[in-house]
Amino acid sequence: MLNIILMIMKHNILRNHGFRACALMKSLRILMVFGAIAMFSTVSGNDATQGDNSFPVHVLVRDANTGESVLTARIEAVNNRAAATLQDDESYIISLTSPNEILRIVAIGYGTREVPLRGRERLVVDLFPDIFTDNYREIESFKGPVRKSFMPLAYGETRDVDHPSILTIDDVIKTRLGGNVRSVNRSGVAGMGSSMFIRGFNSLNMNAQPLIIVDGVIWNSLYDINSIHAGYFGNTLADLDLNDVESISVIKDGTSIYGSKGANGVILIKTRRGEGVVTQIEFNAYGGITTQPESLPVMGGDQFRIYASELLGTTNIHRSEYSQYGFLMTDPTRPGYNRFHNNTNWDNEVYRTGLTHSYHVSVNGGDNMALYALSVGYTGVEGVVRDTRMERLTTRFNADFDLSELFTLGLNVSFSNVDRELFDDGVVFHTSPTYLAMIKSPFLNPYTFTSAGVQSNDHEDSDEFGISNPSAVMDRSLNVNKHYRFSLGAKPTFYISPRLQLSTHFDYSLDKVKETYFRPILGVADIDLPGYGVSENMFMSQQMRNVAIFDDTRLTYRNTFDHVHRIDAMAGWRFLSNYYELDYGEGHNSGTDQRRNLYGDMEFRFIDGINDRIRSIANYANVEYSFDNRYFVTAAVSMDASSRFGKETEGGFQMLGHSWGMFPSLNAAWLVSSEEFMAGADFIDRLKFRAGYGISGNDDIAAFSRDSYLISTPYMNRANGLIIGNIANTSIQWETTSKATFGFDAILLNDRVALSAGIFHHNTKDLLGLKELPEVAGQGYYWQNGGELQNQGFDFSANVKVINNSNFQWELGASIGHYRNEIVSLPDGDYTTTIYGAEILTSVGNPAGLFYGYKTNGVFATEAEALAAGLLMTNSQGHTYLFGAGDVHFEDVDGDGFITANDKQIIGDPNPDFYGSFNTRFGYKNFTLDAFFTYSVGNDVYNHLRASLESGSDFSNQSTAMLTRWRAEGQQTNQPRAYYGDPMGNSRFSDRWIEDGSFLKLKSIKLNYKVPVQSNWLGGLDVWVAANNLWTMTDYLGRDPEVSVGNGVLYQGIDAGLLPSTKSFFVGVKMNL
């Protein structure tokens, strides 16, 4: 049968898959040899179910609260199929083959327990109610569910995803697995998600996000796609409805089995499947509101008038010309007076109370031959920014068919459609309504006035200061994003023998993203396009299509010898193909706001696109060995090739004309609690030490980096030209990360206390970075490998069942994580990267992402003080000026008397000292209260938004902090003088804008009431209320200290003014039919 299967696969592969056929057939030959050996072992090995069950054990199972016997328990042994029987004394008896066996006890309404015998013949086991965390439930792994006792890897896991008021999995990971994953919120826009990092950073310039795997399929994250909407980040995890998710697992080490994709760790998501033959229907519905973000204190109308008048005096405009500025008018009878004498709260023009409503229905059931789970969900969100929304429609069908004793089939079908109406978010001067609401003059009005001084319904245009009208931007702009995703997967499994099986997991997925953007004429200031001209309005369109083909074929062998030796081995190959197509068009100056398409007569037209096929293949093997349920060893290796790799790489090896990387790992664990010498340590339920070393890679290399190509560029107003886009690098390859880890997992005091801790040391070589080219190359940079990064730290988590009685239960959980990275080497020396005006230092001997700028010593209060310091500055025109009273006192590091780039130094570190989460659960009769907190300590934040609101250099409205600006000789203040254009660079990037971003947040809280029901048709009814983002403790002056402006390492800790997360309140119902 195996030969027939392999012949069919060979025919299809040779016909369809071209370049990888030879390598694949070599892998299949290995599988054939492996299968033959395994089948022989199946015949000759000792069957775990044979032999004498000569070790009888008596087990008394009790309720941990009442002490009463639990008579409905199911007791099984890990390596023995013997069944336990209930005795007259209410104890169970089970006959085993080994005194070191582990018993697993399961009972409805209780959490699972696993108990090592340690040679004991009598056991008393207490079970806690299932309101508490189940410390013994299985965890998802590469090969499927695995008992935690036998897992030699560092992991985190949660099945507590039943919090429907949370839109995306990112937030579940943040609150439930905060010490395992550092999850940093991107934005308060619904479904935007978080940037996630497992045990720090293992890259500098490549994607540092973990690998996402959903139901065994590598998930296309679409991180590489840049949106045409400012401040928007695509988040494919928003396509998943949390009601469809069963569990989330985090694998922190031992990821070599994922080869060149596993360096950043792995997040495994398992969706719900059919559970029993009885049909079950579940309905969830909720609704709620989201409050407006708290307004930053900015100047009122009169305050800003004084500031603007003062600033006008620092310009080159003569006083005789001041009359042209209407805001200086004091005569109410003059025409135009009404336009300049308002006190507008621009936040009221931009924000509103957001509304959310969501509905989800699922059906699961089946019979002895098939189980299924079908669900449909809809979520609608009206954002807190006016005229923004998100609508998500999801449907999922999972099924499992037992077609015969030798063949099973798993099926997964899903579809999601997410529509968004967005806005330009963050510090975007011309088109971000949220930013414009802060900087727009409060003495102006959103609407025009008639000659009679009556306000009309027509929008005002941009003002004399070149600042757009946020109300007009909201009403007349177009920001649309649509994302469709379809996935179809099948997993046939052939049971060649009781211990040998062949499976293949095939999946097809289609992602389509369509974006449309329009910037109007009316209400928006003209934008100067250097080298082209003035843009009055603009239309952009971007469409992306990605087709992914995934296949994972593996041969698996399992056997137990002499009741103590257990082998679990697999060999397989994994193939992933992404066909990626992107089309982009841009045009300016349509002449009217009624034309919102790309017309042929538009100016500065620009057409571009990408057409790429990225293919990767991996041959892998994994062998797990355990002895007597005490010692566990796992060895794995993966050989990876990718179309992204150059053909002349220095690492790895060459085979069949392609470059291959080799990624081995070895992990081991010692289950100390199963040792007979621990028989007297009744307070230790489980104690496991684990250690491992492995090598994995990061293959997220920019598309076409190994090739030379041309790109489109605008030419002569309406034409397109071609320029060099990249210079080939045939030696480009993956980044290589080695990981050494050690840790322990423990459960103590009769399942009351669960602890997990680990230390790690990572070393990444062959870092990918941009190398500067000489000007004659016609291209500024190209990608190359070089450099080394080290990352080390620890993580720790604890869970305690504090109180358990008949009416009241209380549980506490906490986690903490710490990492510290250091750049060991760089191929071309230290360098800085400018992001939102901040200089990010990449320097040998220092952590990644450091802020590099000027340190300050306050503001010169008097001219004498400034003269005594004697600091000078030379501007870009070569003129030298002396710092005076009201200027910032910058540190002169090199002591030459001039403030220059040589005086820059490290001024902040966005990496936290510690981060994590803690949670608590209270149960009282039918009520359950859950609260989740997250925290971060010691991380610095660059407050780019505050730097803009306190620059004192233009006619933008300013923070009320500028009311204390220096205005007179001798004034003691920390705010420098206002001066148009900021000739002395007082607002330059310095430690003035670096703040402590430490915080403690009450991220979510939920109160659930389980309604007692006695009905033939209603199986359960829960009513709940919840709130998110209720409280934050921080010294940070911005709106939210939890900030990230990108998925990359260098984009962390920068507050670019994106919409913050705000308070939200929900009420919902859950019904089981």
Keywords:
Maltoporin, Chain A; mainly beta; 5 domains; Immunoglobulin-like; 1073 residues; disordered N terminus; 22-stranded antiparallel β-barrel
Summarize this, please?
Helices cover 8% and strands 47% of the residues. It is mainly beta and 1073 residues long.
Q: Tell me the name of the CATH homologous superfamily of the largest domain.
A: TonB-dependent receptor, beta-barrel domain
Helical stretch tally: 9
How confident is the prediction overall: mean pLDDT? 91
How many domains in all? 5
Major sheet attributes:
22 strands, antiparallel, barrel
- Which range does the strand content fall in? over 45%
Shape: globular
Counted beta strands? 58
Radius of gyration: 32 Å
Descriptive overview:
With 1073 residues, the protein is mainly beta. It has five domains: 43 residues; 76 residues, Sandwich (Immunoglobulin-like), CATH 2.60.40; 685 residues, Beta Barrel (Maltoporin, Chain A); 47 residues, no CATH class; 80 residues, no CATH class. The strands form 14 sheets. It has a 22-stranded antiparallel beta barrel. Strand 35 and strand 36 form a beta hairpin. Helix 1 packs antiparallel against helix 2 and helix 6 packs antiparallel against helix 7. The protein is globular and about 110 Å long. The two termini are 44 Å apart. The N terminus is likely disordered. Its main location: membrane.
Topology of this protein?
Layout: H1 2-16, H2 21-44, E1 55-63, E2 74-77, E3 85-86, E4 92-96, E5 102-106, E6 113-116, E7 122-127, E8 139-141, E9 144-146, E10 155-158, H3 169-176, E11 181-185, E12 194-198, E13 211-214, E14 217-218, E15 245-251, E16 266-271, E17 280-290, H4 301-312, H5 347-350, E18 354-366, E19 370-382, E20 389-404, E21 407-421, H6 433-439, E22 447-449, E23 455-459, H7 470-476, E24 478-497, E25 500-519, E26 527-529, E27 533-535, E28 538-561, E29 565-588, E30 603-627, E31 631-642, E32 653-655, E33 658-671, E34 684-698, E35 709-715, E36 719-726, E37 735-748, E38 753-765, E39 768-772, E40 781-785, E41 788-804, E42 808-825, E43 831-835, E44 838-842, E45 850-853, E46 856-859, H8 863-869, E47 872-874, E48 880-882, E49 888-890, E50 905-908, E51 914-924, E52 927-937, E53 940-943, H9 944-949, E54 994-996, E55 999-1011, E56 1020-1034, E57 1054-1055, E58 1064-1072
Subcellular location: Cell outer membrane
Domain TonB-dependent receptor plug: 168-266
Keywords: Cell outer membrane, Membrane, Transmembrane, Transmembrane beta strand, Transport
